[in-house]
């Protein structure tokens, strides 16, 4: 990690910096003595908590090449953490916009980094680039999935993230720009329900338990999945920003285990005896139309980034609840109960 | 094919319509009684020959969604043939622009087609989406390569074409828009040297022989490759525009044979006894840095599109020479000799 005097000289820019992951990355970097620049369409500082004064928030569009170049130059940005993206349901509903922002935005950030001679870009990608997972990597054997697994996305979101990955690798190979691609599995964390809506299945159960409202998930209590707590994801990003001697391009970053909704419900019922969580039996709670439940092989991230997941499901849920309290946020009863405006769920997967 | 009265009512729009392939597609469609609209940055009608009066040329940018929508609506366009793209060396030299035009342009055309409820979009892709070809599909066995072969591009151009393909499939599956993707191998034809520059290796030999200048290719005389004449490519596009009952998304469209530069040189020396063509022995004349010489399996295009390649290498070369004469074009001596302004060759592959 970059610390001390060096940190004071070089700036880190985080696109999507006020988002769910971005805010947690800002917290991680602030702990290391950085003052990251958060670049986002939204100036909402809700999730920044007590690092408000250790960051700078700049409003901007990830497709605005000129502004990105100006900021990188003016602030001597050497490392860009590129998180800005349209979320899964938005990309599915508007493929044109989803492609422009996710794929086009990534290429714009890469181009700005190339023009200004940045050292490194961290790109966060998603399990959706792999597409359907079957055979030994699927139910019931779940052999850990390595980075070499073929990329055959079956969603607009997955296509947009893969296009960004492939262009990131081209920029990395052609120019002196080091690009590190981190692929997250399903994520959960405070704010996902507020920002992503009903697709945040695990957040619906957690905040529903907190609010005491009934949450019904028709099926899938036994489905095992690799579920990553947002602070572990953010820690991986911070490690990637500071790591030396990296030789790989892409890294699977997961929880190194699998959990079920039944286990999540049991934890929540322990914390909230009045919780009314109804999850039907069986597999596939998400119902994407194809199966992508799997467990990541994280050996590469362990070796090259020094990554270790810190949050068991129990620890993640407790931190979620504590963080909500610390930030003064109320659980979202209506969204938890499934009464939000979002359409049919399109997956808790992805970043 | 759409003919007669129906052809008079519905319009076909060809993006990149004044280009090397586009002009040949216009000729094919004019033969069927269509009056295609050619949408291009360039108003240059050089390659349209005697179908000048059977087409309309509209100047425009493939990234201009509003103009595309207006034209589709005003002209009752039901089928779009999307050929507009930045060529290989331009995409390699400027990945940002290459991605915007090739991938972003494709998504813009798809979005315009979706908004206006078009029936069909033909998208022309490239062998470069497959990336390196090895094992049984490579030297020396060259087992014909089917469409299912994994897509692992290793060039900016290949990434931009694959991103377009993946988004085309998403649009095709989500909306009532039928998208047909045609993948070409290496292409040759009149105009490629003028428009694409030195990377048009086969055109350098042909026009060099015509001009009587010395052409030196350091190595690769024995390399076999699937080399498609532009009129066969254009015929496949016209067939795809009119075919009924298509169930597949992607089609390999090749020559169904392999030829060498040695064979090309022998044909040219037969036609031009004073030709001074010097091609060194061995394999890999192109020197991409990876190997993509292969032969396509075209069974699917035969079955669903009724496609049959018409031009042997000998017939293609003769048509090339005759077409140049008919269009009143002189062979480009300087470019043939390798004295053009283009940088290091980056492959005669791709469309």
Description:
- Two copies of one chain form a homodimer.
- By secondary structure, chain A is of the alpha/beta class.
- Helices cover 40% and strands 14% of the residues of chain A.
- Chain A is built from 13 helices and eleven strands.
- In chain A, the strands form three sheets. Chain A has a seven-stranded parallel sheet, sandwiched between helices. A two-stranded parallel ribbon of chain A has the order 7-9.
- In chain A, α6 links the parallel β5 and β6.
- The C terminus of chain A is likely disordered.
- Chains A and B meet through α5 and α6 of A and α5 and α6 of B.
Please render the helix and strand layout as text:
2 copies of one chain form a homodimer.
Chain A: H1 4-9, E1 11-15, H2 20-31, E2 37-40, E3 56-59, H3 65-74, E4 77-82, H4 88-93, H5 95-116, E5 120-126, H6 156-174, E6 178-184, E7 186-188, H7 192-196, H8 201-211, E8 214-217, E9 227-229, H9 230-242, E10 250-252, H10 261-271, E11 276-279, H11 299-305, H12 313-326, H13 333-336
Parallel strand pairs in A: 1-2, 1-4, 2-3, 4-5, 5-6, 6-10, 7-9, 8-11
Helix pairs in contact in A: 2-9, 3-5, 5-6, 8-10
**How many β strands of chain A by DSSP?**
11
What structural class do you assign from the helix and strand content of chain A? alpha/beta
> From N to C, what is the helix and strand string of chain A?
HEHEEHEHHEHEEHHEEHEHEHHH
Supply Rg of chain A.
19 Å
- How would you name the oligomeric state of the polypeptide chains in this document? homodimer
Mean pLDDT of chain A: 93
What proportion strand of chain A? 5-15%
